[in-house]
Amino acid sequence: MVDVTVEGDRVRFDVDGWDKMWALKSRLEIPLAHITSVRVDAEPARGWWHGFRMPGTQIPGVLTAGTFYQHDGAVFYDVHDPEHTIVIELDHEHYHRLVVEVADPAATVSLLDDALHGRA
After folding, report:
1. What is the pLDDT of residues 9-47, one digit of tens each?
2. Are 41 and 101 contacting, i.e. CB atoms less than 8 angstroms apart?
């Protein structure tokens, strides 16, 4: 699972617990200006093929964590339960998208939408 925090003009994605080991990352920081969209979407986390894993961990139906290369570039995953997944589309970043599990997908999307549109 990932904790999402907005700090000024940046968004911090903190990977929780053992997922740091599985994803080989503990934190990502992205400028708000580089986020093009955010949505609740379980579909990208389902299935067994997420791209070429480099580096990361995938146990189909249990965990997808780390960097996966797909046809349009690098994607960061940290998902156990697809039903709690949000997708963040990025521009001008190493990752083209983040597919992460959060505690409350609707609240997290609302938080990011508010930050993106300058609402406090």
Report:
1. 999 999 999 989 888 899 999 999 999 999 999 988 887
2. no
Which residue from 25, 31, 10 is spatially nearest to 76, judged by alpha carbons?
25
Q: What is the CA radius of gyration of the chain?
A: 13
Mention every residue, 6+ apart, whose C-beta is less than 8 A from residue 24: 55, 56, 66, 67
Residues 6 or more apart in contact with residue 104 via CB below 8 angstroms = none
The tally of domains found in the chain comes to 1
Domain holding 20, by residue range, is 2-116
> Sign of the C-alpha dihedral, residues 99, 104, 106, 112?
negative
